[in-house]
Amino acid sequence: MENTQLLELANKYGSPLYVYDTDKIASQYNRLTDAFSDVKNLKLNYAVKALSNINILKFFKNLGAGLDTVSHQEVQLGLTTGIDPKKIIFTPNGVSLQEIEEVAKLGVQINIDNLSILEQFGQKYPDIPVCIRINPHIMAGGNSKISVGHIDSKFGISIHQVPHIKRVVENTGMNINGIHMHTGSDILDIDTFLRATEILFDVAKQFDNIDFIDFGSGFKVPYKEGDISTDIEQLGLQLSERFNQFCEEYGKDLTLMFEPGKFLVSEAGVFLAKVNVVKQTTSTVFAHVDSGFNHLVRPMMYNSYHNITNISNPKGRDRYYSVVGYICETDTFGSNRRISEISEEDVLCFHNAGAYCFSMASNYNSRYLPAEVMLVNGQDYLIRKRQTIQDILHNQEEVELPKNLSEEVTV
C-alpha cells in the first residue's frame, strides 16, 4: 500500500480508518502452506478473534482455510459466510456447559480445556467427538500477557492431569478425536515451540482414535526494521519431518492443524489517523491524533510497538514526537518517535494494525468506531461504515425517571 493510495483512502472515507490488503493476507497464507508442503494433511484455521469482519472471514473461506473460534458469536459470524461447520473449531476458555452445547448443535468441532466440562459433556454427549486442549507447561510468547502455555496459565488441562482425562474418557465412553495446545503469541524461539510439540506427541499417542493434532500458533511477525520474527520455513522443515514420523509411529495419517491469526493479518493492516494538534511543551512535542486507545489499545495494553509514519510528508525533516490520542486518560501510541515533520491535518499511518486492533476497539468516551476498508486486487471496498450517534444509542432504553425517589420507575 503506497502513501498516495492511503491518503486517497483517508480523503475518501475519512479518519480514523482501518485498511486491509488482501494481497498480503494471501501471501502470508501461502507462505505458511508452502512451509508445510511436505505434510500430507494440513489444515489452517484462521483465528477469528484477530480480525472478525465477515468480509475477511469470507476471504479466508475462499483461500480454503477453516476458522478458529472462541465464542458462540464468532461461530455465528463464521457461519454467515456459508463455511462448512465442520471446518470450524470452537476453543473457548472457561465458558459454561450451555454455550458449548449450543455450539455443538451447529456441528462445529468442540475443543475443551478443563476436566469439569469435559466430564459433564462426555456424560451427556458421548457420541460427539471432542478435542482436548493441553497445557504443556512451556513458557512461550512475547510477554506474560500473551504467554498462555505456562504452569500458572488458566488455559488448557495440565499435562500432569492426562491420567484424569483418560479416566473421564473410560467412564463416559466419549470420543477424543484431537489434541490441541497453544503456548502463546509472538514466538521467537522455534526450539521452545518444538519442545512443546514433543509433549503434545506424548499425549497424543495415549489416545487410540485421534484424527488431528492442533499446534496452535502465535508466530511472530516483524514490527520494525531489523525486528526478529518466527522462522516459519525452518519450523516447517523440522516439524513436518517430525510430524510425518509420528504419523508412521501412530499408524495413521493425521491432520496437522494450526490456528494463525496475527501471522496472517497483522502486516496486512494499517490504521490511519489525522493530526488534530501539534503541541510543544518544555520537553516534548506531542502529535495529538483523532483517535485513542478506544481504537488501538495494543500499545497501552501490551506495550506493543507499532511503527508510525507521516504519509502526508514522508520526505520531510525528521523530528521527535510523542504520538498521543484524544482520550481523557494517558493514551500514548509512541514516545519520542523519529517521524518526518508533522503538521496539523497530516495523516499518520500506524503499521501492523491488522490483528487485535479493530477487534479490540470500543466506544469508550462515547466515540464512534472507525470505518474499515478492504483492498482486493488494488480495488477498495468499504466493509464497515463509520458509526453514528444512532449506533451509540441503539439498544439503550430510555425510562421516565421519578420526580422524587419514592415514585416507581416506569418504562
From TrEMBL:
Q: Which GO terms describe its biological process?
A: lysine biosynthetic process via diaminopimelate
Residues recorded as binding substrate, renumbered to this chain, are: R298, Y302, E329, Y356
List of residues binding pyridoxal 5'-phosphate: G218, Y356
The record, for SUPFAM superfamilies, names:
Alanine racemase C-terminal domain-like, PLP-binding barrel
According to the UniProt entry, what is the EC number of this protein? 4.1.1.20
Which parts pass through the membrane?
A: none
N6-(pyridoxal phosphate)lysine is carried by which residues? K49
**Sequence ranges assigned to domain Orn/DAP/Arg decarboxylase 2 N-terminal in this UniProt record:** 23-266
- What chemistry does it catalyse, as a reaction equation? meso-2,6-diaminopimelate + H(+) = L-lysine + CO2
The family database entries (InterPro entries) matched by this protein are listed as: Ala_racemase/Decarboxylase_C (IPR009006), DAP_deCOOHase_LysA (IPR002986), De-COase2_C (IPR022643), De-COase2_N (IPR022644), Orn/DAP/Arg_de-COase (IPR000183), PLP-binding_barrel (IPR029066)
Q: How does it associate, per the subunit comment?
A: Homodimer.
Q: Which family does it belong to?
A: Belongs to the Orn/Lys/Arg decarboxylase class-II family. LysA subfamily.
User: What name goes with this protein?
Assistant: Diaminopimelate decarboxylase
* Underlying gene: lysA
